[in-house]
Amino acid sequence: MDVSVEMHCETCGSANYSLAGDGEAARLRCNDCGADQGSAGELEAALRQAALAQSAEALRRGLGRLRGSEEK
Prior knowledge:
The protein is of the alpha+beta class.
């Protein structure tokens, strides 16, 4: 199953980022407005959560379609 996750700046909505530093403590900043978007570790956790939520929703939709086809 493929999962695509988009993330946008909480301030300006841009998807243009840069990562300053290395490791989980590195800060993620919006290249358009300069807003701090959190640490690399926080980003990883948020992306993982979003991917899991999308995967779960895709699975629910798939099971719903399967159940619908069984009822016919």
